[in-house]
Specification:
73% helix; 0% strand; mainly alpha; disordered C terminus
Length: 254
C-alpha cells in the first residue's frame, strides 16, 4: 500500500503538462494494469490521451471490477457490488467504442466480457442471449466466454447444452482443471455417473501432477460425491464402472 501511495503521490507531484508525457504515463499505467487510475487522470484530471487509450482504460477497468467480484460479500445487498460496477463500466466502454467507430475486434472484446459479466450477475438469459447472438454472427467465441455460457446453461438446468460446450472445451484442452471440474458437475447433473467418474478420475490425475494448482479453493470431492444424488447410488455406479474400466489414476500410477 505504501508503494502504491508513493506512486500516486509521484504522479500528483510531477503534474506533467506536456500532452505527450501525459500519454506516455497513461500508457505505462495501462501496461501495469492500473486502469482505474489511468481513467481517473483522463476523465477527472483532463489528461491528454488517445481515443484508443481511453477505450482501453474503460474496458480494462470494467474487466478488473469483474475480477474483484470474487471478493464481494455473498450476502445481499453487497453480493454484486463489483459485478454491477463492472457491467456499468463495460456499458460505458461499449457506448464510447461505438461513438469513436472503434474496430470490430475491440467491440467484440467488450461483448465477450458482457457474456461473463451477466453470468456472474446470475442474469442467465442475458448472458446466453448475447452468446447466441455472437454465434449467429459467425464470431469465433473464446473459450472463457464459452465456459461462461456453459455456466449459464447449467444454472437454467439445460445440462445437455452445458455438457456439449464443456466436452468441446475439454477436447481442445484436456488438462484444463476448471473445465474438468465443470464437466464433472455437468455429467452428475444428468446422472451420467460412469462418465462423471472418468472426469473425476482425470481431474484427480491432474491434481496429483499439479497439487498446488487446485481448480477452485472450495472444491470438495466428498461434497461433490454426496451431491451426485445420493452417496450410495453414486458409489455403486462408480465402483461398477471402475471394475469394468479401471481408473485412469490406477492405469497411470507412479
Amino acid at each position: 500500500m505504501k508503494d502504491w501511495d508513493s506512486f500516486v503521490e509521484d504522479i500528483n507531484r510531477l503534474k506533467p503538462k506536456d500532452p505527450s508525457n501525459q500519454q506516455q504515463i497513461i500508457q505505462v499505467l495501462l501496461g501495469m494494469g492500473i486502469s482505474h487510475l489511468a481513467l481517473d487522470l483522463i476523465d477527472k484530471k483532463d489528461w491528454n490521451a488517445s481515443k484508443n487509450q481511453k477505450l482501453r482504460a474503460m474496458h480494462d477497468a470494467g474487466a478488473i471490477d469483474l475480477r474483484w467480484s470474487a471478493a464481494d460479500s455473498a450476502v445481499a445487498p453487497n453480493r454484486f457490488n463489483s459485478t454491477d460496477a463492472g457491467i456499468q463500466m463495460l456499458a460505458d466502454a461499449l457506448s464510447y467504442a461505438k461513438s469513436i467507430n472503434a474496430p470490430k475486434d475491440q467491440i467484440l472484446a467488450i461483448q465477450f466480457d458482457f457474456v461473463v459479466a451477466y453470468a456472474r450477475r446470475k442474469q442467465w438469459d442475458k448472458s446466453l442471449g448475447l452468446y447466441d447472438q455472437l454465434l449467429s454472427e459467425g464470431v469465433a467465441v473464446p473459450s472463457y466466454v464459452q465456459s461462461a455460457a456453459a455456466t449459464s446453461y447449467r444454472a437454467k438446468h439445460e445440462y445437455a447444452k452445458a455438457e456439449a460446450i464443456l466436452q468441446k472445451l475439454h477436447a481442445q484442452n484436456p488438462k484444463d482443471l476448471d473445465t474438468l471440474e465443470a464437466l464433472y458437475y455437468s455429467l452428475v447433473d444428468q446422472d451420467k455417473f460412469p462418465e462423471a467418474k472418468v472426469a473425476l478420475d482425470n481431474l484427480t490425475a491432474q491434481l496429483k501432477v499439479r497439487p498446488k494448482h487446485l481448480p477452485k479453493r472450495n472444491f470438495d470431492y466428498t461434497g461433490a460425491v454426496i451431491e451426485a444424488a445420493s452417496f450410495e447410488a453414486y458409489q455403486e455406479k462408480y465402483e461398477e464402472a471402475n471394475k469394468k474400466t479401471g481408473s485412469p489414476t490406477e492405469r497411470n500410477s507412479f
